[in-house]
Amino acid sequence: MTRAFRFTDPAPPSAATGVTADVYGQMARDFGIERAATFVVLSDSPPLMTGAWALLRESLLAGRVSRTDKEVVAAGVSLANRCPFCVDAHTVLLHATGDHALAETIARGEEPADAGHRRLLAWGKDIRGPRPFPAEQTPEHLGTALAFHFINRIVSALLNENMLPGGAQKYRLVRSAAGRSLARTVRREVPPGESLELLRTSGTEPAWAAGTAVGTAYAALREAALMGAGLLSEDDRALVRKTVADHDGVAHPPLSAEWLPDREESPGARLALLAALAPYRITEEDVRAWRTPRHTDHCLVHLTAYGAITAVERIEEQL
Questions:
Q1: Which of 6, 27, 52, 61 fits a 20 to 30 Å CA distance from 188?
Q2: pLDDT attached to residue 2
Q3: Record's InterPro entries (predicted)?
């Protein structure tokens, strides 16, 4: 059977203790998926796991904005980032909301029939454009979009692309059945703020979500992800920052490797840049070139997260 995790071997959720176990408990209650691989792969770093979970929970799951609308935004982001795992996940979750036709429309790569959903999907694909929602909905919509710009990169870098064993999510009946199994959880009200007590980091809230649970969660995730900078030399950090700054953070880089540092000379910078701009192109050779006996799974997850958050910040600064 194909393993879910490409380069790491996280502990099973059944062995979790402390705050990691608390996250799994909240996930089971509020997300309906206790062992989502998206978060299991981050469990080697509780600050990253709690930050990513809090941002997803407070933006996508909690709040007053329609869950369907936010799932459409998340699907748009995932399509733009070429993350089939996440596109499939949001298709299933749209089935869970009861919007079965919309779910399958997006699964086929077609435009939604509803004009509002078309605008949200288009905005999700490039959030630098005009916002098709009122200002008071910005924390939830923008928080959802930036959460998945981060999560897509983690998933593409560290997970295999199949959401279900054997690629079963390819079948409409499987997608629909999976969604129906989550329907009760997805349709219940999720009170905001309850994930914040799990956070292990804090930082300055972004202006677009200041004073909200989304803002607190985003700041915590950003601080946790930036810890990965310590795995790179000063020169490598500068190279990563400059390369990402020269990119718009949205378009996919050319297939040629001219924009990447040499695998043998700067393997850490190469991994971080791939995580930022083309995470689906990370190979076993890239990881092996960087990884030494002192580099644990914790280190690899943090280096990947550093690349991911660098891209997220680049996107955010263009808004």
A1: 52
A2: 56
A3: AhpD-like, AhpD_core, CMD-like
